[in-house]
């Protein structure tokens, strides 16, 4: 009886899994067809001169540059049609997609690229086919491409488009080019191309293998739903691409018939590809520098522990949470303590300036710069919500974003407030890159309190989004905002909420603790009191609307996986990167896949509840500096 009950439960779970797979595959197929239909198709008109077999040099294009991957050839009619399309649509960068691109490459691109949404989403990462790019000369020059050799691979063009989209955030487009000839894809380069898109090859391949195994189990155990799921997966290339306006994927029938075997082979090949390593000289130099710095230990990175609260001076704070560096896995342990009187949470002992430099290094810039940019680039909806908060109260004219990093918020906020001047201030070099891209008008690099006298009274709006928690003295930062704001100006602040109940449930694995970078976490009541004492009136307070999705359960899984198996190739790693350690990291990341899936579902529920109850993991305050 017990055996029958277990079998019944197993069959019930399989049936549900198969039904979910059918739903997901069906939705993905419909989404892919919709996205494909939104891709314009170039229609070369007039005299047509086919390119000869040895003719690889494009014709001259006044005001434009054509960048192609090796072996890609475009005829003159196609190029003239591309220029006409770009001019007509107001585009400065166009990714040209070969009409004969293989089916799996097209499907992979359509999973990442929503042409209509990404055209207007100023922070959306540039995703393209990686075969040919038409670039306006002014963008080519501003991006610094005049002095660089062209990319020598599809991966290089994929990476280049991501850069160019940053310089043309709302003037980048895509078009199918029937006259574009390209070589067959090289399966051996798949891992490189996935990395160029900012995707983890090993994790994606493991997920692909797990999906294939699930489909096989469903097909064998649950003939009705399982067979439907397997058939939908098998026939998806034909369902999406046949018939497709403008596209004629090479070998579509063969790709559809052999899809499961091809997917299995591709996933196994990609999984077996060694992880990318930095250039030997660069990696060796980085490792040597970190090794020398760590030789003296990490104790010197900390100040003496304080015995009172830095916010209200009450004595005897208590330990809230202790943890290692779960973000980068650099050596060191960190303690957050909580004031018994006001609830202020602070790092104790606090990092010194030298310690902050050590732990910030290679996070937002350097080795970690690309990953940080990807995360920041996927928050467009949050950026718009922040900018929209001002709409009932004011029309901003001169806005200073403090802690702007790469200027992602300002880039998106320009779409909400197109007549506003946006300036950015940050400690890192990225603020200057933001100015070169045109995301901000003026870049200020340095500490806000040090620059406040220079900027006194210049701005009617100042924002600090997830900035105050990084500072050594938040009250001094608020004093600087008072100086910089003109009377009647507005201050917008967003912070992690240390009073979030989920923070106690997840303990050290609650992502917003963000150690060792976060120095202070202020309850909303404390911050409101500090603002009011400085002559501000709080106009709006948001909790649920400020909630950061995937920062709770998904973040906890990511931190736990990184804690169990840190990256052995990191230059600060203190243990040799043996083959066994690399395999252990891959195994942990693979085993975490179902945990990521469950965490994603939990976070979606958590976000819905946070919005409904106005209780999330972060909060926003909008305050006005009163006249006088």
Automatic annotation (TrEMBL):
Organism: Streptomyces tubercidicus
Domain of life assignment: Bacteria
Lineage: Bacteria, Bacillati, Actinomycetota, Actinomycetes, Kitasatosporales
Annotated spans, Disordered: 41-64
Gene3D superfamilies for this protein: Vaccinia Virus protein VP39
Pfam families: Methyltransf_23 (PF13489)
Protein name from the UniProt record: Methyltransferase type 12
